[in-house]
Specification:
Layout lengths: L4 E10 L2 E11 L4 E5 L6 H8 L7 E6 L2 E2 L4 H6 L1 E4 L11 H10 L8 H10 L15 H13 L5 E5 L7 H16 L3 E5 L3 H7 L2 E6 L2 E7 H7 L3 E8 L8 H4 L2 E5 L2 E7 L5 H10 L4 E7 L3 H9 L4
Parallel strand pairs: 3-8, 3-9, 6-7, 7-8
Antiparallel strand pairs: 1-2, 1-4, 4-5, 9-10, 11-13, 11-14, 12-13
């Protein structure tokens, strides 16, 4: 079966800045795929190349078998992109802008029923005849999703779709996106909310400094962090004269709360507690937090690795 997105040997530079350094990636049809990385890793550049907004200096990209340069019309017809920025036209209503967007793909009145369905599904019904400049940021985000779906694409790319939106809106958006995925669409997600990626994505690629540093299923990536755990302690006061062996393990301190990263095979919790007691600190509460995707992400992208 032809993959949803195929990326081979992609390089991209802007003057002396190497944004992408040889990206090879295949996203299969029907996947819910996570594309993660710190700021400046190259995620948005890669999405721009997939969407045809900029060209790679080397390499090839195809969407459902259609090259994004040589067969760009079909490639773009298969693809819907929700951009990170709130880009909107202030002169039209929600319904008008969706009909205009459909027109870019040669769709006319026969597509109006689908537009109305999108308006209702994204809870834009009471805003359908409102000018876009009067909408809140969250409502504008919903309109961007509707625009990306107006031509019924098989592959949907979401670039930070919940950035800056409240919790209630985030939950409703993910319910809608999960419904799209259940209908068979391929979803590609970039997000800085790693709990979203952990909850939704089946397979994940992590970019850093223009390269893919990890590519695996979510479960296998989480297994990378199982060698370590976070020890959360609450003490009876600030720690004085912390032993150097413990100071190296401290991840965060807030008043009398402290988090240490421990090695499951090498570190003894009893020895850690005894060391703290030895410097006059009493333990009020102790918890062990299992590693999550954020722990793995930090482990893979730390600058001293």
């Amino acid at each position: 079966m032809v993959p949803a997105v195929a990326i081979s040997g992609v390089h991209k530079h802007f003057a002396s800045v190497q944004a992408l350094k040889g990206i090879d990636l295949v996203i299969e049809r029907g996947e819910f795929f996570g594309l993660l990385g710190p700021n400046g890793a190259g995620k948005s550049t890669l999405i721009s190349i997939i969407a045809g907004l900029c060209r790679a200096n080397a390499g090839n990209v195809s969407v459902l078998g259609h090259d994004v340069v040589h067969d760009y019309r079909r490639a773009r017809r298969c693809l819907g992109v929700v951009p990170q920025e709130l880009v909107f036209d202030p002169f039209f209503t929600v319904r008008e802008i969706l009909r205009i967007q459909a027109g870019y793909f040669g769709l006319g009145r026969e597509n109006y029923a689908w537009i109305e369905e999108l308006i209702e599904a994204l809870m834009l019904g009471d805003k359908a005849d409102a000018n876009l400049r009067t909408l809140s940021g969250g409502m504008k985000r919903r309109v961007l999703i509707a625009q990306a779906l107006v031509h019924r694409p098989e592959v949907v790319v979401l670039d930070e779709p919940t950035a800056g939106v409240d919790v209630e809106l985030r939950q409703s958006l993910w319910q809608f996106i999960q419904k799209l995925h259940a209908e068979g669409r391929t979803i590609v997600l970039t997000t800085h909310y790693l709990e979203e990626a952990e909850m939704l994505c089946e397979r994940i690629a992590i970019l850093d400094q223009g390269r893919i540093i990890a590519l695996d299923t979510k479960d296998h990536l989480l297994a990378l962090g199982m060698a370590h755990a976070t020890l959360q302690l609450v003490t009876d006061g600030p720690i004085a004269n912390c032993p150097p062996v413990l100071a190296q393990k401290i991840r965060k301190t807030e008043g009398n709360r402290i988090e240490l990263q421990i090695d499951r095979q090498k570190d003894s919790i009893i020895e850690i507690v005894d060391a703290l007691r030895g410097c006059g600190t009493q333990i009020v509460d102790l918890r062990i937090q299992e590693p999550d995707l954020e722990d793995v992400f930090m482990q893979l992208t730390r600058k001293d690795r």
